[in-house]
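Researcher: Structure for this, please.
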Amino acid sequence: MNNFNFGEVLTRAWQIIWKHKILWVFGILASFARGSGGASSGGGNSGYQGGSGNSPFSTGQFERIIGQAGQFIQNNLWIIVAVIIAIIFLSLIAYSLGMMGRIGLIKGVAQADKGAEHLSFGEIWAESMPFFWRIFGINFLVGLAFFIILAPLIVIGVVTVGIGFVCLLPIFCILVPIGWILSIVIEQAQTAIVLEDLNMLDGFKRGWQVAKTNVVPIIIIALILAVGGGVLGVIVALPIILAVIPLIIGMAALRESLTPLYIAAACCVVYLPVLLVFNGLLTAYIQTAWTLTYLRLTQTKEEAPVMIEANA
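Model: Predicted structure, token format:
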């Protein structure tokens, strides 16, 4: 706590992921569940006003659209149900792979920090399996808790046509920092579960203890990773943003031709593998930095890290 070296952690994180590029694969997997432990908020204001002369839809048109939507749902109910089930199933698979990627990064980084010269994907994957349900469980329970809290608030906001969101704004302002703090504790907890072989409850207690006794370095490293990761994330996603913005600006032109939409979609598809690799690398770096942070805050003086050379 007293002599936490931020520069050493950030530099060592880069050295490790550059030398052991197999961690990029785990980073790509971990990116499927990135941010799952934190609070998320959704819902936007929709201000439909009926009866106004400036309204884009008359009351009759609106009712006709609702009727057509209802008829479509009724005629294609099984298809819609199948699609929803498929989406849920694929989301669970992606989330599970994300958890395995996260565990693999923690395992691999700990081995690399001890001086391992070679990391094997199969070996790390096998060593990560025993921790899957514990890491999955602690993230799922935290996410479920926030969903239980946020769902009624969002429903109130929607039912009141946005007025509820304004009234509930102070609650949302409180939940955001709480969610951020809790995500930091979970970050320490899951590292404790993997590296110290703890159950979910003991892991959470250990994560809270580490975060509570090292508030200043934990908050500083969290801000560095959040701001730096956010800036790099925007830069990496910039080509997709530049492809989509003209479509939004020229939305009216799409009524005449869908060619710009096809071009933008093709550009996004071509750039997708690049985005996946960069996102995996960024995720790997952030998780590596968090793992090293835990190791530095909990190791004894005798457990000095073994420095490695970054091989190009």
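Researcher: Any notable elements?
Model: The CA atoms of residues 37 and 142 lie 6 Å apart. The chain is about 75% helix and 0% strand.
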